[in-house]
Design a protein that fits this description.
Layout (H helix, E strand, L loop, with lengths): L4 E4 L3 H12 L4 E4 L13 E3 L5 H7 L3 H5 L9 E4 L5 E5 L9 E3 H10 L6 E2 L4 E8 L2 E6 L4 E4 L2 E3 L17 E12 L2 H4 L1 H7 L3 E6 L2 E7 L5 E7 L3 H5 L6 H10 L6 H8 L6 E7 L12 E3 L2 H4 L7 H18 L4 H31 L5 H8 L6
Parallel strand pairs: 1-2, 1-11, 2-7, 4-13, 11-17
Antiparallel strand pairs: 3-6, 4-5, 8-9, 9-10, 12-15, 12-16, 13-14, 14-15
């Protein structure tokens, strides 16, 4: 293979691509805006599915390492009413196909599987332009440039590479969440820890909810979801943590104290996370020398599939490149032909889940989804 692969973004999708290419003896360089692997927090728990994320890890030759990261018991799910009553309780019996791991740990094993120097840290992309003939120039914030004949945008929601292929931009989906954490919860916040249980907890009402995961070390990671316009959140001063926390908590007046404590007792500053999305059927015409994966290709509202899809994208693209080392355009075309319907189906299902989480019949719509033996995330 003569062409060196240039990957923009060292998230799970970009790293999976780099790893699968490495397995096949194909060189790649990943350019990442972060200054180091530890420059920022890497999010919370991820459920890695046996029908996509685990397939990607198998293609990357990392299943043994992945199994060593699994947090036992975290596939348990419970749904509570606003009064704290348990309406649905599904324990983790060890047979589920969606084991939970910490995102940061998953990223770590991918990074450690790559040759030294594969990831170039501190390279924030400021622009990308076509040079013709399938070649592109990437410009970085420090003024440096790189020219490549094979460019992959794995650079997330606000991708700098996407405009080469598509005019689509993410739009606000009508809901945002506010993140909070409780640490050493079994000892310091026992009522909230009991409410959350061993895995994931959903306390829902029409247009809002308190969702929490039990992470490692007794940490409870909470997402306070509210279906409100962006202006509503913009009016809250999140630089004043106490005032912002109080304002969010007021939306849950009258709820059980063990639930509202997940907000009011938060031990980190509340962080707003707007839900943005690309069109469900987002696709593009083939442009020589460039393609996308992960959120750059199919950003969706949170549905438990984003990281899994990104890794599967990376693995499938890596295999397609390896299968056509002397005809990269054929490899790209085959990858995109499968990518578009696969991602559209999953995004549509995720949108349906979001509707059930916060619709006028919440939380019973979600309970119905479980009791009908459908997959919830």
């Amino acid at each position: 293979m003569r062409t060196h692969v240039t990957i923009i973004g060292a998230g799970l999708g970009g790293l999976t691509l780099a790893r699968v290419l490495h397995v096949h003896g194909i060189p790649a360089t990943v350019y990442e805006a972060d200054s180091s692997p530890m420059a920022r927090a890497q999010g919370g728990m991820l459920d890695i599915h046996d029908y996509n994320g685990q397939l990607a890890l198998d293609a990357a030759g990392l299943m043994d390492e992945f199994r060593g990261l699994i947090l036992e018991g975290r596939q348990a799910i419970r749904i509570l009413g606003r009064d704290g009553a348990v309406l649905f309780d599904q324990p983790d019996d060890g047979t589920g196909g969606r084991p939970e791991v910490q995102r940061g740990e998953l990223r770590r094993i991918l990074l450690e599987s790559l040759p030294a120097g594969t990831v170039r840290w501190g390279h924030k992309v400021s622009g990308v332009r076509s040079l013709g003939g399938g070649r592109h120039e990437v410009t970085f914030a420090d003024g440096g440039t790189v020219v490549t004949g094979l460019l992959v945008g794995a650079d997330g929601a606000w991708s700098r590479v996407r405009p080469l292929l598509s005019d689509a931009t993410p739009e606000y989906a009508g809901t945002s969440s506010v993140e909070t954490y409780l640490f050493d919860a079994d000892t310091r916040h026992p009522a909230s820890a009991k409410a959350v249980g061993g895995g994931s907890m959903f306390a829902l009402a029409p247009g809002k909810g308190i969702l929490a995961h039990r992470e490692s070390g007794g940490t409870l990671h909470t997402y306070v979801a509210l279906s409100r316009p962006q202006d509503w959140f913009a009016a809250i001063d999140f630089t004043d943590s106490a005032a912002a926390t109080a304002r969010i908590a007021r939306e849950f007046d009258g709820w059980a104290p063990e639930l509202t404590a997940l907000i009011t007792d938060g031990e980190t500053a509340p962080v707003p996370r707007p839900y943005n999305a690309l069109p469900v059927e987002h696709r593009w015409e083939r442009v020589p020398g460039v393609t996308l994966l992960g959120d750059a290709a199919h950003l969706a509202i949170p549905n438990g599939e984003g990281a899994n899809l990104a890794m599967l994208d990376g693995a499938e693209l890596g295999k397609a490149i390896a299968a056509h080392p002397d005809d990269i355009e054929t490899g790209f075309a085959e990858y995109e032909k499968a990518l578009f319907p696969r991602s559209a189906e999953v995004v549509a299902e995720g949108n349906l889940l979001q509707q059930r989480l916060f619709d006028d019949n919440a939380p019973h719509s979600l309970i119905d989804m479980f009791t009908e033996h459908e997959q919830p995330r």
